[in-house]
Amino acid sequence: MKYFIYCRKSTESEDRQILSLPAQKREIQTYAKKHNLDVIGLFSESASAYKIGRNKFNEMIQRIQDGEANGILVWSLNRIARNPLDGGMIIHLLDSGVLKEIRTPSNIIKNDGNAKFMLQIEFAVSKKSSDDNSESVKRGNREKILRGWDHKKHAGYMFFEDPKHNWEKIIIPDPDRFELLQKAIRLVINGERVSIALNKLNNEWGYLTPRTRKQGGKPMSLSNFYKILHDDFYCGWLETKKHERVRGKHIAMISEQEFDQLQKILANKGKSRPKNLNLPYRGMIYCGECGCAVCLDEKYQTICSECKTKFSSKNQKECINCHTPIAKMNNPTQLHYIYARCTKKRKNIKCQQKSIKIEELEKQLFEFLSEIEIAPKTETWILKQLKKISEEEINSKKQIRNNLQSIVNNTQAKIDSLFIEYTSPANSKHELISPEEYKINRDKLKKEQKENEEKLADINQQADMFMKEAENKFNFARIAKSEFQFGNFKKKTEIIRQLGSNLILKDKKITINQEYPWLFIKRTNQKLSDLKLKGFEPKKSIDLYEQTGAIDEVISTLQGGKESNPHQRFWRPRFYR
């Protein structure tokens, strides 16, 4: 047997408690000498095994395949692999006989089924441990960003352990680099070329990157300088991996206005600035003429301060008429608006629908929400009436529940009787009931029992589901208008989604193609209004209306509008069924 010694230490968090490379080497060499093992080579590297591509590991595997050695000495099995590809290669080498054994100070793995099974478990545990550590790091980084602090290093800033925040690492300006980098950025904002500003930063002002153990102490590169110019971290923003934008607590190097001006000067050639505006109602509105989806577009326009020409400035850095750069204009008028339009993707239909501004669209949605809005006192009264109606229906179905329960009990009795007959001494030779007959009859009875149990459970749950859904709908009708009025685009989208996904836009008019429950609530509101309960808060007590009997008209509306026949069975709108 000839062995390779393999030592690995990673800088990642999962290796903080692992022996250092010299300590691993010393322990394994001592073990090899004690057991008279023939060691012909040693591989030592600082690399993570979470991903493939370790140079020393790959070299060792290649030399084992070439027949130079047939054993591996390692401090711990998780030093070999933490990813499925490298682990699978080790198992394959054991299966093929190229690798005879793997030794640790506490274990020996040979080409044996149980040993390879335990090796696979060890690799899987290592992989799971790495995955858990990765998720913990991501979760911690996101939480730190949401608190307003970044976890990454940024040029011009440094980490500082703040005693006022439990020694948490926060970001503060680097006293040796912050002002130099700020000065260079503002040169570009004032119209200087990027290469000239970088040259002054490096050669005239002596900027050097922070020195670390392996790198640093060098001038700023052009690519990194461009990344800084396009990074809105420097105007005070942070962003998580899920694209959640958060206002950072660090000191911004430039203002947002300066950053916007900088992006126009650079003509958005680099990484575009993530938008703080998420366009709403995506996939919810359709054209009433051709049926295509309605999309929302943004427009940015500038009115030149020199020649008064209006032009699109989303990707334009100068006036299209007089060619005056936007950065050098004296207070140009900046316009920004959003409009909804049909995508017109059906080639066989020539859609004539025009676009509509989002302000007009939201005005119509707000008007609809106003029509279904109800006051808290009115909501309480309506739910009280619905509960009465629900209790009446529960009582009417009491006999049905009793009948179903009786059927379920009788079916269970038949199953028990069938089992007793099948297992009786008289049927020891299966002359009365064969196994096939028993199975068919038992399955048939169990199926019948299950169907009746489901019907019984459905009847028992109907009333609770009815009241729960009614409470949710009326609670939404009470608060939707105010939340829509003061909410952001995300909140507005959530509210409109609850109205239904069939929103139709035609001739600049939005309609909601969902009759219930909103038509039902609108009719109820109208009845209350007719009974002088105006302003969503009744001028007189609702109890007074109940005493006079005038409120019966509203109850008939709650029953689906069948007031012509008071003895007719209660009919519930579709959303209550």
The strand order across the widest sheet is 2-1-3-4-5
Largest sheet: 5 strands, mixed
The share of residues in extended strands comes to 5-15%
CA-atom Rg in angstroms? 37 Å
Topology, number of strands? 16
- Distance linking N and C termini: 77 Å
* Overall geometric form: flat
Question: Which ranges are low-confidence, i.e. pLDDT below 50, for 5 or more consecutive residues?
Answer: 268-277, 533-541, 547-551, 560-577
- Specify the number of helices: 16
Structural class: alpha/beta
Helix content: 40-55%
**What is the arithmetic mean of pLDDT?**
78
Oligomer: single chain
Q: What does the secondary structure layout of this molecule look like, with pairings?
A:
Layout: E1 2-8, H1 21-34, E2 38-45, H2 55-65, E3 71-74, H3 84-96, E4 101-104, E5 107-110, H4 113-146, E6 157-162, E7 168-173, H5 178-189, H6 194-204, H7 222-229, E8 237-239, E9 245-247, H8 256-265, E10 285-287, E11 294-303, E12 310-312, E13 333-342, E14 356-357, H9 358-372, H10 376-396, H11 398-422, H12 435-486, H13 489-499, E15 503-506, E16 509-512, H14 518-530, H15 542-548, H16 552-558
Parallel strand pairs: 1-2, 1-3, 3-4, 10-15
Antiparallel strand pairs: 4-5, 6-7, 8-9, 11-12, 11-13, 13-14, 15-16
Keywords:
577 residues; alpha/beta; five-stranded mixed beta sheet; four-stranded antiparallel beta sheet; disordered C terminus
Structure description:
It is flat, with a radius of gyration of 37 Å. The protein has 577 residues and is an alpha/beta fold. It has helices at residues 21-34, 55-65, 84-96, 113-146, 178-189, 194-204, 222-229, 256-265, 358-372, 376-396, 398-422, 435-486, 489-499, 518-530, 542-548, 552-558; strands spanning 2-8, 38-45, 71-74, 101-104, 107-110, 157-162, 168-173, 237-239, 245-247, 285-287, 294-303, 310-312, 333-342, 356-357, 503-506, 509-512. Mean pLDDT is 78; it is low at 268-277, 533-541, 547-551 and 560-577. The strands form 5 sheets. Strands 2-1-3-4-5 form a 5-stranded mixed beta sheet, with helices on both faces. Strand 8 (237-239) and strand 9 (245-247) form a beta hairpin. The protein contains 16 helices and 16 strands.
